[in-house]
């Protein structure tokens, strides 16, 4: 008898990505623990995943200009469910250390903005 994939057997959890946290830093570690470990049963069913700053998300495929002669190979691709449950987060939370009194405030602000833009 055949078995269903693990993605179909488990309850689907929305994936929330966190980036910019260095869990070797005690403050960052406490933030990560607050998100990942302290989940009450009455909270929304979500899964948190830590992404490093160099993580590359899959690129968006270009849209076809015409579907006139296109014949799909099936309803869903084999890895579609796993990809959206485990690899591509619904939301990415970006953490960035800013010091309000930093003399290079504008440069830090621009660096933070470029980091957010690179995720888009």
Automatic annotation (TrEMBL):
GO terms for cellular component: cytoplasm. PANTHER family: FOIE GRAS, TRAFFICKING PROTEIN PARTICLE COMPLEX SUBUNIT 11. This is Uncharacterized protein. It comes from Cardiocondyla obscurior.
């Amino acid at each position: 008898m055949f078995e269903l994939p693990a993605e179909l057997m488990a309850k689907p959890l929305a994936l929330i990505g966190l980036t910019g946290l260095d869990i070797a830093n005690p403050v960052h570690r406490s933030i990560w623990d607050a998100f990942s470990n302290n989940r009450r049963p009455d909270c929304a069913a979500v899964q948190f995943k830590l992404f490093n700053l160099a993580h590359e998300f899959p690129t968006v495929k270009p849209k076809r200009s015409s579907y006139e002669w296109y014949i799909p190979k099936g309803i869903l691709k084999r890895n579609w469910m796993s990809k959206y449950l485990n690899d591509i987060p619904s939301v990415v939370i970006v953490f960035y250390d800013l010091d309000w009194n930093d003399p290079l405030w504008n440069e830090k602000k621009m660096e933070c903005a470029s980091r957010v833009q690179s995720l888009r």
